[in-house]
Amino acid sequence: MNQQATKITVVGGGAIGGIVAARLARAGLAVNLLARGPHLDAIQRNGLTVMEGDDRYVVNVNATDQPGLLGAQDLVFICLKGPALIQSARSLAPLVNAGTHIVSAMNGVPWWFLNAFGGRLEGQRLESVDPEGVVSSALPPSQVSGCVVHLSSSIAEPGVIRKGNGNQLIVGPAAASVTAHAAHAIELLRLAQFDVTTSSEIRSDIWAKLWGNMTMNPISAITRSTADVILDDPLTAQLVVSIMEEARRIGEQIGIELNMTAEVRNAQTRKLGAFKTSMLQDVEAGRQLEIEAILGAPHELAAKAGIPVPFLSVLYGLAGQLNANLGAPKG
Predict the structure, then answer these.
(1) Is 209 a catalytic site residue?
(2) Count of C-beta atoms within a 10 Å radius of residue 252
(3) Could you give the angle at the alpha carbon of 114 between the alpha carbons of 81 and 35, nearest 5°?
(4) For residues 307 and 302, what is the distance between their CA atoms, to the nearest angstrom?
(5) Does 330 reside within a domain?
(6) Of the residues 7, 81, 163, 209, which is catalytic?
(7) N or C: which end of the chain has fewer CB within 10 A?
(8) What is the tens place of the pLDDT at every residue in 222-256?
(9) Secondary structure (H, E, C), 269-298
């Protein structure tokens, strides 16, 4: 496929979607960006500005909040949080035809996770992240590759993205039928100066990242504590390990193996110091929390697999109540 002729849309102009769109545009590709609100207004007026260390640059992207105006795309990057994807899924259908390749760069368990998965859960739908099939009807799971993001980024102000640490993306096809499409997406992302690792087991990479996020994120949101405080307190540290061991058993039951212990994983997190998780930052800003992809989907997978998860269940319930008290719906 001719790179310059590839029709590309990035859905979600926030911290991750913004940096993906900006890097692709800086590499000379024509990019559509779906954004909204003051952020969209600023991009339409002034272009999309990115700050990377001492480097500051502005790129022109076709920014809009009307996906229906763009038509079917060759490549669509989904860079939304789970609740926003559910809310906007129907409006994204015009972007997709039978030839569209979809790359989901999202936190937690995505809507397509069990498609082409194998085993007894093959093809089942996860109600927690795809209620009534609203997402999969617009974004067919058979046309998806997954992307695990290992970089930090934030919106400094409307129209301005500040890139933080890290530059790694892990990309892999969710089904063998999209392997060639995944390779093309990887080529474009490397052209955009990301460090891209190709994965043949993208679900395992998703689960490995989730393994740490599913504890530290919600516990920090509930307690308002930074990660170091959570791991230095023996009681909350034990809760973290207990939930991680439940998640390990879920993974083993559905065919995903983790190659390290909870203690080793938490030691890696502890080295990062007194950082605020993204979910803690969302609480402080009064934003809706991404509960379902981080906790709801693993809880649903445990139920499907017949795995008791009492510690995960408690954390899921508490996080859901916190979300409701923030004025945001649980789902």
Answers:
(1) yes
(2) 13
(3) 20
(4) 5
(5) no
(6) 209
(7) N
(8) 999 999 999 999 999 999 999 999 999 999 999 99
(9) HHCCCCCCCHHHHHHHHCCCCCHHHHHHHH
